[in-house]
Specification:
Keywords: 2Fe-2S, Iron, Iron-sulfur, Metal-binding, NAD, NADP. With 465 residues, this protein is of the alpha/beta class. It is 37% helix and 16% strand. The protein has 3 domains: 200 residues, Orthogonal Bundle (Globin-like); 88 residues, Elongation Factor Tu (Ef-tu), domain 3; 149 residues, Nucleotide-binding domain of ferredoxin-NADP reductase (FNR) module (Rossmann fold, 3-Layer(aba) Sandwich). The longest helix is centred in the middle third of the chain and has 24 residues. The N terminus and C terminus are likely disordered. Bound molecules: 1,4-dihydronicotinamide adenine dinucleotide. The site of 1,4-dihydronicotinamide adenine dinucleotide has 29 residues, from β6, β7, α10, β10 and α13.
Length: 465
């Protein structure tokens, strides 16, 4: 339920004609008929499920509304009865099995490998359960998710398919031992999330579900790292610090997040920095198998780690590897909106000096911005920094306790830097960072990550191969 890819159906017409670089994946009309038949049967389906499995009947109530939903009560029920439905990996495997058994044609609408989807759904379940007593947070997250899911053609009927499959999965996993009350609590939770997604989808009707883009420039700056520029057919508004999910035609239905590496440009071009994380994934397709003229699709902009509420403070940017994309966009933005006297520090981590792949843009920024101090931190090989790691370098180079910090890069570097900054006196609500799955939150747990919600984002790149 979290990242775009794991909601039950992606049956949008636009996705039914994706071309696969020479491998036409046009779907036959029979599959389209099946889809429309599914839409037409949406109400009948629920009735049928109740008739076929009366003991596990899906409660026929309206989706809970924000005010009416007693999430805390459902949270208690769910938490007290986790044993029968955990590990979630098993529950989720049953869920997709049940879904594809009932609706085999849905399988082809998902990426070949389901691992990524399953991992995201697991994180989403935990996120929902952990935040059920704060429904407003779930609503915020799901509203954005619903906006994003428009690119997949998700329709309300798909949430019902998902619900039925969840119900079936709980039954299979527990051997029918899940208490009816507990099952209903789960379904209410999922329905509440779905209501937020439907609202988010409706709210976004004025924008396209996805933007079509053409690659205008593709530079391999390292053997495994490309800087790619894309022009969208329709204007693509975003804020520096945000990111977009991208789908390559080489891997239909597989979307991965990449940060915009510049401020919005007058010519409307977008720039992304992508390092190949392994064979066969989106990063592989984008770095080694994408050429100028190729088309891509982009989801709507996401993320809240922008300069919008930076409180006018001095800025500390900590970036590692292609996390530099985030740092660069934020610094460019700062240079455009900077108030006199305001200063910025950049700690830029790279494994080797050759891995400082965007040196020209960096020196342009340095020349233009006398208020910017740059500390490159090379970790390996000749020229390695005496500071050792990025986190150590921060500790040695001054007092940043009054700054606002933005941290972006490999999960381990982000974790080390965030904890080091907290140790140096920077309060959690002034440390913005990429979400890191499994990272122990700072004490106040008030830091803003992007996106709001479970840890989905660039960290996931490593799992895409
Ligand atoms: N492409 C994009 O738009 C964005 C990517 N990211 C994330 O940034 C990361 C960049 O990865 P690469 O370029 O391959 O970085 P990399 O492996 O080249 O490392 C960059 C820096 O991080 C440090 N580092 C790496 N592993 C570390 C560890 N275990 N502990 C402490 N420090 C460590 C390195 O010493 C170096 O200073 C990826 O995880 C990606 O998901 C984040 C934001 C935007």
């Amino acid at each position: 339920m979290t990242a775009a890819d794991e909601i039950p159906g992606r049956c949008g017409r636009e996705e039914s004609t994706i071309m696969d670089n020479g491998n036409s994946r046009t779907r036959d009309s029979r599959k389209g008929d099946e889809y429309h038949a599914l839409l037409a049967r949406r109400d009948a389906m629920r009735l049928r499920d109740q008739m076929l499995a009366p003991s596990r009947a899906v409660e026929k109530t309206k989706s809970p509304t924000y005010d009416a939903y007693d999430g805390a009560a459902d949270q208690e029920l769910i938490v007290q009865n986790l044993a029968a439905v955990t590990p979630f990996s098993e529950l989720i495997a049953h869920l997709y099995d049940a879904m594809f058994e009932r609706h085999p044609y849905l399988r082809q609408l998902f990426p070949e490998s389901m691992e990524f989807q399953k991992a995201h759904l697991e994180r989403a379940f935990w996120f929902l359960i952990e935040h059920l007593h704060k429904p407003e947070e779930i609503t915020t997250f799901c509203t954005q998710l619903g906006r994003d899911h428009r690119k997949l053609g998700v329709q309300p009927v798909h949430f019902q398919v998902f619900e039925v499959a969840l119900s079936e999965a709980m039954y299979r996993m527990s051997g029918g031992r899940v208490d009816q009350e507990v099952e209903q609590a789960w379904l209410r939770m999922v329905r509440f999330a779905a209501a937020g997604m439907v609202a988010g989808s409706k709210r976004a009707l004025a924008e396209p579900p996805a933007w079509h883009g053409t690659v205008t420039s593709h530079q391999l700056r390292r053997p495994d790292l490309a800087v790619i520029r894309v022009r969208t057919a329709e204007p693509y508004p975003y804020q520096p610090g945000q990111y977009a999910t991208i789908e390559s035609p080489l891997l239909p239905h597989t979307w991965r997040p990449y940060t915009f590496a510049t401020v919005p440009a007058p010519d409307g071009e977008l720039e992304f920095h992508i390092r190949r994380t392994g064979p066969g994934g989106v990063s592989d397709a984008m770095t080694l198998h994408t050429r100028v003229g190729d088309t891509l699709r982009l989801g709507p902009p996401q993320g809240t780690a922008t300069l919008d509420d930076d409180q006018g403070r001095d800025v500390l940017i900590v970036a590692g590897g292609t996390g530099w994309a985030t740092g660069r966009a934020l610094l460019e933005d700062l240079s455009q909106r900077r108030a006199p006297g305001r200063r910025a520090h950049l700690f830029l981590g790279a494994r080797t000096s050759e891995d400082l792949y965007d040196a020209q843009a960096l020196s342009r920024l340095e020349n233009r911005c006398p208020w910017l101090r740059v500390v490159p931190v090379i970790s390996d090989g000749p020229g390695a920094s005496p500071d050792g790691s990025v986190a150590e370098a921060i500790a040695r180079h001054g007092d940043f306790s009054q700054h606002i910090a933005y941290v972006s890069g490999p999960p381990a570097m982000v974790t080390a830097a965030v904890w080091r900054l907290a140790g140096l006196g920077l309060p959690a609500d002034r440390i913005r960072h990429d979400p890191v799955a499994g990272m122990v939150p700072l004490p106040s747990h008030a830091q803003r990550t992007r996106p709001t919600g479970p840890a989905v984002g660039h960290m996931a790149e490593g799992a895409q191969v």
